[in-house]
Every structure is written in C-alpha cells, then in structure tokens.
Write a structure and sequence with these properties.
heterodimer; A: 343 residues; mainly alpha; four-stranded antiparallel beta sheet; 16 helices; 4 strands; 5% strand; B: alpha+beta; five-stranded mixed beta sheet; ribosomal protein (chain B)
C-alpha cells in the first residue's frame, strides 16, 4: 500500500514550488560562482579567515545532506493543487524498485539546500553630481537596463535624484526594479504581511514553519537582511519548542543545523536525535561542531582520545554542553530503546 | 506591410499609450514617416511620466540595442535625448541645463518679490491702524 502511494505521489505533475525552485537554483548559479571565487582567493592567504568553515564546503554539505534524511512520504506528500484524476500503474517488483530509485533522485533534487551567504553590504556609489539640475524635477528618475543576457546582479540600475546626483540604486530598489521588469513567479513587489513579527508568531503556533520558509525563499534574495532575520527567528522558535522534526526531511534542515552550530546551541537538537534513535546523526552534528570550533575543549579532548560513536557524544556532554544532564539521561535510555525495538 | 522609405531614417522616439489622463510612453525604434503609435521596428524601453508611491518615475532602456540602432544611424528625438542625458548614457542635454537655470532664475525673483510685497503690506497696515 505504501509503495503504491509512493508511485502515485511521484507520477503527479510538479507543483508550483518545484518550478520556482528549479528557476531559483539556476539563477543562483551566478551568486554561488561569485562567492566560490572569493573563497579560492582567500584560501591563498594563510590567515585565520581562510580556515573559517564555510557552508558551501564539501564536507559540511555531505554531513548536512546525510542528517537531512530522505523521507519519501514527507517529500512527496499531497499538496494542494489542480484537481486531476490519479493515474495508477501496474508494475512488477523490478519496475517498482526502479520507480522508487527515480523517486529518490527527484527527492534529492527537491532537498537541495538554499545557500547561507554573508549579508550583502549596502551600495552607496555616486556616479555624478550635477548641481545644475537642482530643483528641476520634484520626483526621482530610476533608469533600469533591460538587456536580456545580463545577470540580475550585474544590471545597471541608476537613480537621478531631484537635487541632480546620479547614484547607483540600493539593494531594495534593485530588487523592486528587477521584479517589475523581469518578474519572478510567486514574488510580490511589496513585502507580504506574513513576514511581520506578530503574524509570524501565529504561523509558528500552527506549526507551519516549513511553508513560511518556502515562502521566504521565493520572496527574498538569500543574502538580504530580511531573509536572514526571518530564518533566524524561525530557527530560534524551533529550538525553543524542540520542534526539530518539522524540518527534518526538508531543504531547510541543513540551514537550521548550520545556524545552531554557529550559535553553539546544539544541545536540544542532540537530545531530540538521541530520543528518535538517530545516534549517527547526533555524532555527525558533534563532528560538525568540532570542525567549526577546533579550539574548543570538547574538540581537543575528542582528538586526544580519538573518540568516535557514543564516546564522542559523551565527551561533548561532559565538556561543552549546558544541558549535560539531559544528554547523559537520554544516552542511558537509548540502549534500552534499541534493545526493545530489536527484541 | 513591408514599406520601403525613400529618404527616410530610423528614429528612436516615444510612442504614446495608456488611458485617459494616464499617459505611458514606449521608447521605440521606428521609421521616421510612420505614425507615432504605429508599427515600429523594435521596442527599446519604456517611460512612465507619472511618479509612483515612492516618488519615482520609472524609465527602462535596452542599452545594448540602443547602441546598435545608434550605430545604424538612428536619430533620437529631443525627449529621448534628454532622458538618456539624465541617465548618464549621453552627456546632459543643453535644454535640460537651460530649463534648470531658467527655473532657478524665476524662483529667485519670486523669492525676492514676496519679501518686498510683504514689507509693502506691513507699511500699508500700519498707516491704516494709526488712521
């Protein structure tokens, strides 16, 4: 029955967000290449900054993809879309396994993590000052370049103020102009009311963090201040209430883990993983923590003792964590649970 | 209809569109002899003369294609040349500068006259009050 359900979900036509995601991923290639080149330049200089762990490192990405998991039932769960009669296919076991494999490939494509970029610096470049034009016009002129083959980040968007200065447009103005002339599907010109603090709290109470983050991904650029703020608020709410499972098999799980690791608040996450019998994931999280902060006490002890597996978790619980009691309790309970499930 | 013009040239000009009391211009490369809003060769941009809620007038240019048509010998009209001057693509149009200076002169004379008029009014009021 479950297998039938999987194939039915897979053979549905792609829903709105999938189309948006593929366009988004293609468009982000330019940004990622630019940031990739910055990393290669900095790695030539032997300094502290080059040793800082980046979200886009291969080791980090592999750990995060492993932790995210691949729950096909959750990834391909029914989504509100156009009514269409379902299609049923009669298959042999081999065909079924092949269909499951293609479903897994599609799921992996959907679980691609949006990048975590440093916040964009404000643009304040003045190109010309013409005092002659002061007072001629009461309103500003915004000149956009609509050449088709230019990436949106490199477009010329220039503003002539009413006092005659010709300056480059700020990031908010740029986003607005690009959305007017090259509309991105699903994006609004004015910020939707969902992203206000009070309304976000209501969304969190209804446990719809994933939908909020998907909407945020469509609406904002990944290095804008609002995008970062919304994501941080969501992650903090999840951490406060321990609702890590909401994001578990989604594309936002990696970003959440990265945020918690950089804030040094992985205790709740580890306890949740141990309680759900995901010891390997908990070990990966602690490994990531040690990769990011190699100077911390637990990292040094772990490297001395060559700890791995549950020993690693115990070292971390003893040294760095603030909720060491909870972690040790959970570790004590874990073998009993595993015996019960196996027995 | 493929029309062959004798002695005509391509112009980069504004074609008016929109609704009543709501103009909207398209910046267009068209033959000189065609109707203002008629068949054009290529649209090169747009100009919205009414400011929006952020007090901005939106202008778009396809600089790549404008460069091509200018290289082919197209003539831009005065308003298009002024807009391109304000954008920084062309040097500032002399009429833009002239109009700015004229406006400044008028506003200066206006600012000198009211103080003189106010003084005149005040001197009139005092004699009437005294009388």
């Amino acid at each position: 029955m479950a297998a039938l359900g999987v194939t039915r979900c897979f053979f549905r036509r792609s829903h709105q967000l999938k189309k948006v995601e593929t366009k988004y991923i293609v468009g982000l290639g330019w940004v990622l290449r630019r940031h990739g080149s910055v990393d290669s330049q900095s790695s030539n200089q032997p300094s502290l900054e080059s040793q800082k762990l980046m979200f886009s490192d291969e080791k980090v990405q592999s750990i995060l993809t492993r932790i995210t998991g691949l729950d096909l039932q959750k990834v391909f769960r029914p989504v509100k879309m156009e009514m269409k009669p379902p299609s049923y296919h009669l298959m042999t076991d081999e065909q079924l396994s092949e269909a499951t494999k293609t479903a897994e490939e599609a799921a992996r494509q959907r679980l691609q993590m949006p990048p975590v970029l440093p916040e964009r610096k404000p643009i304040c470049d003045i190109l010309a000052v013409d005092k002659v034009l002061d007072g001629l016009e009461k309103s500003k002129y915004v000149f956009t370049d609509i050449t088709f083959n230019v990436p949106h980040r490199e477009r010329f968007i220039v503003i002539r103020e009413s006092d005659g200065t010709l300056r480059k447009a700020t990031w908010e103005e740029r986003d607005r102009m690009v959305q007017i002339y090259f509309p991105f599907k699903g994006r609004r010109l004015t910020t939707p009311a969902v992203f206000k603090e009070a309304n976000m709290k209501v969304v969190f109470l209804e446990d719809r963090h994933e939908l909020l983050l998907d909407h945020c991904l469509v609406q904002f650029e990944p290095d804008s201040a609002e995008y970062k703020q919304i994501h941080h608020l969501t992650y903090e709410n999840i951490d406060q209430h321990g609702k890590y499972d909401l994001l578990r098999s989604t594309r936002h799980f990696g970003g959440m883990v990265w945020y918690l690791v950089s804030e040094r608040r992985i205790d709740g996450l580890i306890i949740d993983m141990i309680q759900r019998d995901l010891i390997h994931d908990a070990e990966s999280v602690v490994e990531l923590y040690h990769m990011m902060y190699p100077q911390c006490q637990s990292a040094k002890e772990a490297s001395e003792q060559q700890a791995s597996g549950i020993e690693l978790l115990k070292v971390y619980a003893r040294t760095e964590s603030k909720q060491s009691g909870y972690i040790e309790l959970a570790l004590q309970v874990y073998p009993q649970i595993s015996l019960q499930t196996s027995g | 209809l493929l029309k062959h013009y004798h002695g005509g040239h391509v112009a980069i000009r504004l074609a008016l569109g929109g609704c009543v009391n709501r103009p909207f211009y398209r910046i267009v490369a068209a033959y000189n002899k065609r109707a203002r809003d008629g068949k054009y060769i290529e649209q090169l941009g747009s100009y919205d003369p009414l400011p929006n809620i952020y007090n901005e007038k939106l202008v778009s240019f396809n600089y790549d294609r404008i460069k091509y048509w200018l290289a082919c010998g197209a003539h831009p009209t005065k308003p298009v040349a002024k807009l391109l001057g304000l954008a920084g693509f062309f040097p500032l149009h002399p009429m833009t500068v002239t109009n700015a200076e004229r406006l400044r002169r008028i506003s200066e004379t206006k600012s000198i006259q009211p103080p003189a008029a106010e003084e005149g009014q005040k001197t009139e009021q005092q004699p009437t009050e005294s009388a």
